[in-house]
């Protein structure tokens, strides 16, 4: 197994990553119980890992600044960890506690073997360690309005109410410092009644706990305390199996990591049939290439509009003559750097028009890491507009060996020895906690 250091130094000047289509236009407010598909056709929505990625041409508008007036404090208090759950890993991959893909859910397995076999990055390059039976559900999230919470104000009929699961293969690699970087993201669309029922029961065990609003998103504190066989973990698993399955599965997205390369893709699901998702903002394109490394530039080819706007954050690698050694310099003007940094903050803001229906895979997964790297290199975001939550922290957790580097593409899960949460996931979770607090509080 390669060490983190050797992985970081691999192709330090340039690292190529191919990404499949990950986006599409959301259909609006169709309930999962409706006879028709939530969406069909070639342009559909889809996040990979914690950050959703969807289609449609990207024409981003003005930013939505924070913090905003939070209004009266709701009577019900929720932690971000009540709405977004990162399971602790078992000590051994054969230990119980994490759901398998073939776990019986609503109408059948969480993800059927047939659908899994149609994921091209895994079927084209089959490996024993990521065979169908090796995958486990490591995270779960509630979302009352996918693809953007802004729709709750502008057009609630466009909201898709979802239970979202993140699966990764062989927990041994995740827990033991392994470099495996593969993910499947499963999105289950629910009716309003289903979502309200699920949400109330999902957060009930953690409702009004002491210090709830002060917690940052992390490995579930309650599950760490009680264990994977405790009452809370058992209850969450039972709810997943009750609401997630072929009857509600509407979207599957995936990421294959190859150390310095990541390939993304996805498809919409309807009655067991699926339609590939097209990358947003790329006229009919089905793939794109990204370069990324720890201290080297990254790029996307072909570029969506927002990817091009982030390009100044890539910088240029200047070698000092050694193998893979040198430094990163930024050639863009101060104004161009500020514009790119602002755009990266917009990407991470769940209330702007940059959302899963307008962002491509590479943008969702690289924006906050590119910004963090630029800040470490002396850039500043002081005075820029960003999402802030008046009641709870939106700090990110990245305990992988890569830290907040462009080599770290994961959004919500485990990689290289530790849990990872990116900024978009942290911000979305804070917003969901706010929304559910208001819904569950008495008038």
Walk me through the structure.
With 443 residues, this protein is α+β, with helices and mostly antiparallel strands. The chain has one domain (4-8, 18-440). It has helices spanning 4-9, 80-83, 113-117, 120-123, 151-154, 171-175, 192-203, 221-226, 231-243, 305-310, 334-347, 361-376, 423-440; strands spanning 16-20, 84-86, 104-105, 108-109, 135-146, 160-169, 183-190, 249-257, 262-270, 273-276, 287-293, 296-301, 316-319, 326-329, 412-415, 418-421.
**Strand percentage:** 15-25%
Query: What are the low-pLDDT stretches, counting only 5+ consecutive residues below 50?
Result: 1-21, 24-66
Q: Helix fraction?
A: 25-40%
Number of helices: 13
Let me know the largest β-sheet: 7 strands, antiparallel
H/E element string?
Answer: HEHEEEHHEHEHEHHHEEEEEHEEHHEEH
Query: What is the number of strand segments?
Result: 16
* Molecular shape: globular
Q: Span between N and C termini?
A: 56 Å
Based on secondary structure, the structural category is: alpha+beta
How many discrete structural domains?
1
The largest beta-sheet arranges its strands as 2-5-6-7-8-9-10
Radius of gyration: 20 Å
* Overall pLDDT confidence: 80
Features:
alpha+beta; disordered N terminus; 16 strands; 7-stranded antiparallel beta sheet; about 450 residues; about 25% helix; 13 helices
Outline of the structure:
The chain has helices spanning 4-9, 80-83, 113-117, 120-123, 151-154, 171-175, 192-203, 221-226, 231-243, 305-310, 334-347, 361-376, 423-440; strands at residues 16-20, 84-86, 104-105, 108-109, 135-146, 160-169, 183-190, 249-257, 262-270, 273-276, 287-293, 296-301, 316-319, 326-329, 412-415, 418-421.
């Amino acid at each position: 197994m390669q060490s983190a250091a050797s992985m970081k130094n691999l192709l330090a000047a340039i690292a190529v990553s191919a990404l499949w289509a990950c986006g599409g236009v959301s259909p609006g407010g169709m309930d999962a119980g409706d006879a028709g598909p939530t969406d069909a056709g070639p342009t559909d929505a889809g996040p990979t890992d914690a950050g959703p990625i969807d289609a449609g041409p990207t024409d981003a508008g003005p930013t939505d600044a924070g913090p905003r007036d939070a209004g009266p404090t709701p009577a019900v208090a929720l932690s971000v960890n009540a709405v977004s759950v990162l399971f602790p890993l078992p000590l051994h991959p054969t230990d119980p506690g994490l759901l398998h893909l073939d776990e019986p859910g609503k109408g059948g397995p969480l993800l059927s073997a047939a659908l899994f076999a149609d994921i091209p990055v895994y079927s084209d390059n089959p490996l024993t360690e990521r065979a169908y039976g090796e995958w486990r559900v490591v995270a779960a999230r509630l979302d009352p309005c996918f693809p953007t919470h802004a729709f709750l104000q502008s057009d609630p009929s466009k909201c898709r109410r979802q239970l979202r699961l993140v699966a990764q293969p062989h927990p041994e690699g995740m827990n033991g410092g392994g470099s495996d970087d593969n993910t499947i993201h499963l999105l289950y669309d629910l009716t309003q009644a289903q979502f309200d029922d699920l949400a109330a029961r999902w957060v009930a065990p953690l409702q009004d706990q002491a210090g709830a609003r002060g917690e940052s998103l992390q490995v579930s504190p309650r599950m760490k305390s009680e264990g994977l066989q405790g009452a809370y973990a058992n209850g969450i698993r039972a709810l997943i199996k009750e609401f997630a399955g072929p009857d509600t599965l509407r979207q599957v997205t995936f990421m294959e990591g190859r150390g310095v390369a990541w390939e993304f893709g996805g498809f919409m699901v309807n009655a067991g049939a699926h339609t590939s998702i097209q990358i947003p903002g790329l006229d009919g394109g089905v793939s794109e290439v990204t370069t990324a490394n720890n201290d080297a530039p990254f790029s996307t080819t072909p570029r969506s509009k927002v990817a091009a706007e982030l390009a100044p954050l890539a910088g240029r690698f200047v070698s000092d003559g050694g193998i893979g050694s040198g430094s990163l310099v930024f050639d863009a003007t101060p104004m161009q750097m500020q514009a790119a940094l602002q755009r990266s903050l917009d990407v991470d803001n769940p209330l702007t028009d940059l959302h899963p229906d307008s962002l491509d895979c590479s943008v969702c997964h690289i924006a906050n890491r590119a910004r963090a790297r630029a800040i470490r290199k002396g850039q500043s975001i002081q005075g820029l507009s960003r999402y802030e939550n008046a009641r709870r922290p939106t700090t990110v957790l990245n305990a992988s060996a890569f830290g907040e580097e462009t080599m770290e593409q994961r959004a919500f899960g485990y990689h290289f020895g530790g849990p990872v949460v990116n900024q978009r996931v942290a911000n979305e979770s804070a917003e969901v906690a706010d929304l559910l607090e208001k819904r569950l509080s008495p008038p």
